[in-house]
Structure prediction request, 476 residues.
Amino acid sequence: MENAVRVRFAPSPTGLLHLGSVRIALFNYLFAKQKKGTFILRIEDTDPERNFDPGAKIILEDLAWLNLTFDEGPNIGGPYAPYFQSERAPIYQEKLDQLKKQNAIYRCFCTQEELEKKRKRQIALKQPPRYDRTCLALSIQEIKKNLLEKKPFIWRFKLITNKTIEINDLARGVITFDFSNFSDFPLTRQNGTFTFIFANAIDDMVMKMSHIFRGEDHISNTPCQAALFEAFNIPLPIFWHMPIICNVEGKKLSKRDFGFSLRDLKHAGFLPEAICNYLAIIGGSFEKEIMNMSELIKTIDFSDIHSTSAIRYDVEKLKWVNHQWLIRYMPQELLTQILPFLEKKYPQAKEVTQEKLISLIKTIQPELKTLQDAPAFLSFYFEEPEVSKKNLLEQETDIIVQELIELFIAHIDKIDSPDLYYQAIAKVCKEKQISLKHTWRLFRIILTGKPSGPGVKELLELLGPAKIKKRIQHIV
Ligand code: GLU
Prediction:
């Protein structure tokens, strides 16, 4: 189908996915879904030394966790397989041979040291650092001699320097680049492998991308890649160079910032729905901020993208979005999410019934900001508080403390029925004109170590007779 939307996420597996990349993947996905197009995953693993995630296992897991499913890519294949660049060398070689035939490229035998020297000289002379085309001027004999001597070389693309090129960017409109400012760029490395600029552009051509949404750090590569499209007589896709993500101080988000990598957020108990929701709404303004994927697909207006230099990442706002998602979960579903966090801190949670766990979760759900909050909020159930009578008497100067503790003990035989127990204590307090509020506050401290928390009746139900007895008797 002509004009079909085809977009791709093209990560290099050089580290953990960070939020900027996740946002790029997300917008490619949303665009593909909105335009009924195809979302492709291509792994740019041409640099074996920087290959931190072989087979892109982590990337694949992370995308699956986020529910950003692709239509073509590793494992599932597609019409332009393979989707790992490391397996596509024959395709790049064929395209390089084509450029050779067109006389659009040349061998460069300059060494790194020579290039560095030239660069320094140009900078000293306040000239733009650019390859000086020494090797373009080599004669056939000189080239032959170098080849016979097995001098290492790279292939460079011969730019037509007295011309400009226009690219279309969703946020910036038409951008014009003047090739006189650019170098003849390398297409291969001395070891024969292909450069990022070349492999990336060839794949975008061969895989028939209609749009390229990527980080604005790639904007300087775009003119060279556009020159390659032109050399193959292939129309340019539409670009969107997406703003980088900054921390609240306006600096580029770095490894030191909490939540830089997606894994940080996952381990801290953020939900994939909340992360996608948050990344889709930052940098825009939306009447309704909490949206699921299908709402985002309908809502994001790609015809109204503005150029922003940076997008601010605010963990507090992300926590708010996460909280909004957590309070919308059904308790049963929430339990599934919380269990790994809870069992890590309290392995004994495995022995607690589902029914009890759900009742516990319902009491903390309105307060949760992350899944990781859950073990701390439920510590009252799993841990005996450290309260001694001595401490209580010191803190609560009221002499009534002693009397109340005795009262709690005196009725302990009724504890099998929390209702009866509650009423018996309430009755005595009424007769003796002791404040109920004060009584239950003390009771809660004895049971949980904290003056606030679930209501007393709820607490009695949640803890159950055995735990309550033990904790009250412990205080004596
Ligand atoms: N592999 C590149 C990166 O991870 C992506 C380039 C692109 O999207 O064109 O930054």
About this structure: The longest strand covers residues 164-169. The mean pLDDT is 93.
